[in-house]
Description:
Mean pLDDT: 88
Number of strands: 0
Number of domains: 1
Radius of gyration: 19 Å
Distance between the termini: 14 Å
CATH architecture: Up-down Bundle
Structural class: mainly alpha
Order of helices and strands: HHHHHHHHH
Shape: globular
Number of helices: 9
Helix content: over 70%
Low-confidence stretches: none
Largest sheet: none
CATH class: Mainly Alpha
CATH topology: Rhopdopsin 7-helix transmembrane proteins
Amino acid sequence: MTRAWRAALATWAVTMAFVFVGQALWPASALYQLVLTEGLLLRLGSATKLLLLGLAWRQSVNCVTALEADNPARLPWRLFSLGLLGFFLGQAVISAYQVVLGVSPYPSPGDVFFMAAYPLLVWASFGFVQAYREAGYPVGTRREHAVIGIVLGAVFIVLGVLLLAPVVGQAGPFLERFLTAAYPAFDFVLLVPILILLRITAPFRGGQVFLAWSLVLFGIVALCAGDILYAYFSLMGREGLGPLVDATYLLAYLGVVLGILEHRGLLAA
Length: 269
């Protein structure tokens, strides 16, 4: 993908995110009542998310094929691509409901694909750490990474309890409450290896590797924020948060696809 197409993609996704933020702030304005109606935004947002995830998956596959068979990063990229495929398929299921019927069921069959994707993404991210070690990069010791993981895990557990306890305690079907808590929990787990990867590439600040993982980190943080917002939106009935959920997911998927494009540029160099 050329820089011009990349800029156009980013501009469209960010614009859509701002449109959703505007919907959250001024839902009763004429713009959102007569022009950018809820049904139109539902379909535009859904199609944009599907586009971003499709590009992220396709570019991650390109990263796999760009590596030699014996390259230690090939397996992590393959796992990462499969995880992104899971996200794409999950979004495709939801998009079918949203575009055709104008509804967003939750839970939906798409949740099966989303849930299956997370272990692959976590496994892949830890695999990248090992791949950097095998390639001879100064990644630090396993003990150092274990300490970082324990500290981050403790912080995320505290955050998770504080943020999600009010949500999980709500009345509602067990599956809905389980998924609502599981998504942010998986996000927190995924953040651990991503932050370790950022620590590894920190000495290359200003370089493409650091930028690539920074963009992926931004995407995962935005995804976590979106999942937490969705928890409050779906189980606690805070309807005003709905557009903000869409905005954060758009930025999340944009961050991931831009990060993968940076990696693809590195492998093509």
